[in-house]
Design brief:
The chain is α/β, with parallel strands linked by helices and about 650 residues long. It contains 23 helices and 16 strands. The protein folds into 3 domains: about 140 residues, Sec1/Munc18 (SM) protein, domain 1 (Rossmann fold, 3-Layer(aba) Sandwich), CATH 3.40.50.2060; about 220 residues, Rossmann fold; about 230 residues, Sec1/Munc18 (SM) protein, domain 3a (Syntaxin Binding Protein 1, Chain A, domain 2, Alpha-Beta Complex). Helices cover about 45% and strands about 10% of the residues. The chain is globular and about 75 Å long.
């Protein structure tokens, strides 16, 4: 079955093929065309289709809609953008300037009737009606970062952030627009998947607002005979992404768990996101090889699905990754040695090539070795890239003691006794940075059953002395008070933590030349444990009775009359889309991936797709909490709250 990412790629390739099916004969010369996108369109395409693939599809030029563009006659122009007033004005400007001969307009969200009439009037005025070949609504307005992971926004993601949803003085119409934006993207996602989900979500939350609007939108589409986008549903050729059984869409609110986004992490992908700021599968690492006086320029590293090492190890604990890099390096060196040895044994070091006439076993082996050179070069490039990334991460781990933070937070979450009192750790000037201490304290505060005021004051004084900005705490305290009053489990009991054990230091690791040494870094072996999101997902998929999830809304858009009552007899779900309103992270994504791996059996294949309105790392999330905290502290906005 095709994954979500593959289906989105197919939809975009079809658009780039001027909305006709892909030609059967690959030898067929593509139609040359230019691609014009807005920032949203660019973010959607960049993680899934490389520039090389665009060329193969006949795209000779790809440019921003709002850049200065020259007229290019004789080549079709494909527009890929949102139908915003600003974008439509620019398209009308292109009509009147007569920039292109043929226009293919592809809108990321359905264009309204009044806007299309304005566009038609502009085309008539510019005398280019005949040049507009097609106008399409493309339902691909989401960003696929992995086969089973998507986000809704990358650039300008603050529009859908946790802060935007929870700030005190959001006007009703702003909130409506924000929710509509999430709903439109989720609707596009299910059109791409080809399935109508059953929706579950907690009541009285932002997730409920999204759920009700999405159910209405899905139901209206299903019962509109002309516009129904799901008429083929799961019976279509190739099936949906899921099996014939319908998936469950579990909509959750970031407010259910503020500890995980701040947690220090130990797996490769989440560490890259936390310390190096991974965005759209690209990470920038400073080039250590730059000559002494030169300014170190960050080098872009593309972590895509063609990178076998990344696909294998992105979810592995960091020490395992470091050892794997060392093994890759050794295997590469062995291949290199083999080629050298063969050349020596045949006497063809240097320029002499007499020995090539000897057709024997060695020649055949050398030919094989030479043929494998491109793969070898690519392997070397990837080893160098991962060595560079891993070295950068290792420097951060050592400088900020991230391994110790991870271990302490795991103990806090699993209610184990700490080796040193928290106050000592926060007062220790050698122990990490101010931001790390603040993250640790907030997790401790969230997971503690009761924290006496006197202890809180002492800990806050230590944080202030360490240079922490305590603005975020005003919001976290209010949040915890509200959560503890709401029905369901208290915050303190919902974390389990993994319980780590430390294995002896290891010395065998990687670096530019020989081996980089992870001296002074703990090699933590982590026991798998389920985060709050994963626990709820398991309960909802298994249809287990549970005080918390039984109260969740149950919405089925296929029912003529909507109801939100849980049906009596329900079969467990094989497939789920878990969506976090208010921002997600790689820690939760990895936890769900690990959970589903454990659940696979030979006869039951289960799938989970994880999505979020935005993707934030701990630094960004702290910034949002601080912004919310400063609203509480400043009287001008606290009156609005």
């Amino acid at each position: 079955m095709l994954t979500l990412r593959e289906r989105q790629i197919n939809a975009i390739k079809q658009m780039l093929n001027l909305n006709s099916q892909q030609p059967k004969a690959l030898a067929a010369e593509p139609v040359w065309k230019i691609l014009i996108y807005d920032r949203v369109g660019q973010d959607i395409i960049s993680p899934i289709i490389s520039i090389k693939e665009l060329r193969e599809l006949g795209v000779t030029l790809h440019v921003q809609l709002h850049s200065d563009r020259d007229s290019i006659p004789d080549v079709p122009a494909i527009y890929f953008c949102l139908p915003t007033d600003e974008n439509l004005d620019r398209i009308q400007q292109d009509f009147s300037n007569g920039l292109y001969d043929v226009y293919h307009l592809n809108f990321l969200a359905p264009i309204t009737r009044s806007k299309i009439e304005n566009l038609a009037a502009a085309a008539l005025h510019a005398g280019c009606v005949a040049n507009i070949h097609r106008v399409y609504d493309q339902y691909v307005n989401f960003i696929s970062l992995e086969d089973d992971f998507f986000v809704l926004k990358h650039q300008q993601s603050e529009q859908l952030s946790y802060y935007a949803i929870n700030r005190a003085n959001t006007r009703d119409e702003e909130m409506e627009a924000l929710m509509d934006s999430i709903v439109d993207s989720l609707f596009a996602l299910f059109v791409t998947l080809g399935n109508v989900p059953i929706i579950r979500c907690p009541r009285n939350s932002a997730a409920e607002m999204v759920a009700r609007k999405l159910e209405k939108k899905l139901r209206e589409n299903l019962w509109d005979a002309r516009a129904n986008l799901f008429h083929m549903d799961a019976t279509q050729a190739g099936g949906g992404v899921f099996s014939f059984q319908r998936p469950v869409l579990l909509l959750l609110d970031r407010n259910m768990d503020l500890a995980t986004p701040l947690h220090h992490t130990w797996s490769y992908q989440a560490l890259v996101h936390d310390v190096l700021d991974l965005g759209l599968n690209l990470v920038y690492v400073e080039d250590e090889t730059a000559s002494a006086g030169a300014r170190k320029k960050p080098k872009a590293c593309d972590l895509d699905r063609n990178d076998r090492f990344w696909m294998t190890h992105k979810g592995s604990p960091f020490p395992t990754v470091a050892e794997a890099i060392q093994e890759e390096l050794e295997s590469y060196r062995n291949s290199e040695e083999e080629i050298k040895r063969l050349k020596t044994s045949m006497g063809i070091e240097g320029e002499s090539d007499i020995a090539f006439s000897l057709v024997n076993d060695t020649t055949a082996r050398l030919t094989n070795a030479v043929n494998s050179l491109p793969q070898l070069m690519e392997k070397k490039r990837l080893i160098d890239m991962h060595t560079k990334i891993a070295t950068a991460i290792l420097n951060y781990i050592k400088a900020r003691r991230l391994d110790s933070y991870f271990e302490i937070e795991e103990k806090v979450m699993s209610k184990q006794t700490l080796d040193r009192p928290l106050l000592d750790l926060l007062r220790d000037g050698e122990f990490g940075q101010a931001e790390d201490k603040l993250r640790l304290y907030i997790i401790y505060f969230i997971c503690a059953q009761q924290l006496p005021d006197s202890e809180q004051e002492r800990l806050k004084e230590a944080l202030q002395a360490a240079g922490c900005d305590l603005t975020a705490l005003a919001y976290v305290q209010r949040w915890k008070a509200i959560m503890n009053r709401s029905p369901g489990i208290s915050q303190a009991t919902q974390y389990e933590g993994g319980g780590t054990k430390t294995v002896s230091m290891f010395t065998k690791l990687v670096s530019q030349g020989s081996s980089f040494v992870m001296e002074g870094v703990k090699n933590l072996v982590v026991k798998r444990h389920n985060l709050p999101v994963t626990k709820i997902t398991e309960q909802v998929m298994e249809c287990r009775s549970n005080a918390e999830t039984d109260d969740y809304l149950y919405l089925d858009p296929k029912l003529l009359k909507g109801g939100d009552v849980l049906p009596k007899n329900r079969a467990p779900f094989q497939d789920a889309v878990v969506f976090m309103v208010g921002g997600g992270n790689y820690i939760e994504y990895q936890n769900l991936v690990d959970f589903i791996k454990q659940k696979q059996t030979s006869n039951v294949q289960r799938r989970i797709i994880y999505g979020a309105s935005t993707l934030t790392n701990a630094r960004q999330f702290l910034k949002e909490l601080s912004a919310l905290g400063s609203e509480i502290q400043s009287p001008s906005t606290s009156s609005a709250s």
